[in-house]
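Example (one chain per record):
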Amino acid sequence: MNDDDLHLDGNAAAGVLAEVFAVEMTTAVGTCAHCGTTNALGAVRVYAQAPGTVLRCPACTNVLMTIVRSHERLHVDLGGVRRVEIAG
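Predicted structure:
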C-alpha cells in the first residue's frame, strides 16, 4: 500500500472542520508553514485512518493540521499552517 492509497482529498475533513470552525472551511485558503504553498483546505491530503484526522500539504506532505477527539473535547493543532484565510 502506498501513500496514494491512504489519503483522501480535503473535502473528507468537512465534518470535523465544521465542528472546530463555525464556517465552511473546505473553501478557506491555508498556507503551508513549511513550503509556502497556498491551497483551499478542500485540496489538501486528509488521512483519517489514525485515531484523529491529519491534514497534509499536497505539495510537500508537511502536516498542516491534526484534529483528535478525546472524550468530550477536540484537540486541534494548526502548527503546520502559516495562515488561514476565511472568506467573510
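Caption: Helices lie at 3-6, 14-20.
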